[in-house]
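Batch job 17 of 40 flagged for manual review because the log was empty.
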Amino acid sequence: MNGENKAQIPEVNEMSIYEGGSLNRIVIDDLLENEVAIKQLVNRHNTTLKDLKKSREETANLRASLEYLRTTPFIAILALISNSIGSLLIAISVNFITDEKDQDYEYLILIAGIALVFLGSLSTILYPYANRWFNKKE
């Protein structure tokens, strides 16, 4: 089946319902003494304002998401550099520890390497939360 037997549902909007689908000018004289028309006009205005507010909020959320997606590679690169340097420091410190010569700084290098690997890994995990925290909704 390629969709030949599917029912076609026409698009229905306000323009196709009211006044036969054409735009008509609203004159103040038409609204005088016409409570129903005034209520409908006010309701439509309020609905439009709510839709506008919702669209603006959605636009702000999409912009925040776009900025998050743009900055994520930067955080990943920093994590890569941090993890690489940390792993190299761990390897060097293990080499010093297993060497027969006693060095004073071998454990300091080991702790620095572990800290860099930990912070690099933690940065990619915590970045979404930090992004939400820095971009709080007002």
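Reviewer: the log was empty due to a logging misconfiguration, but the result itself is present. Residues 14-134 form one domain. Unflagging and moving on to job 18.
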